[in-house]
Amino acid sequence: MNEPVDQETLRQKLGDARKASSADQMIADADQSASDTDQIASDIDQTASDRDQTVADRDQRASDQDQATADKDRAADPDLTTADETAYESSREEREVASLERLGNRIPRHATARDRHEAATDRDRMADIRDEGGRGRDANAADLALPSTEREARLLRELGELRAKAAADRERAAEDRARAASDRADAARERARLEAELQAAHLDELTGAYRPEMGRMTLTHEIERVRRSGGGLVVAFVDVDELQTVNDRDSHAAGDLVLQSVVQAVRARLGSFDPIIRHGGDEFVCGLGSTDIAEAQRRFDLIGIAVEAEAGVGISVGLAELEPGDTAAGLTQRAGEEMLAVTAARRAALPPTVSGNVSAEARNPMRDDPARRWASRLEVREDASEAAETDR
Question: Which domains does the chain have, with CATH numbers?
Answer without folding.
Answer: 7-202 (no CATH), 212-391 (3.30.70.270)
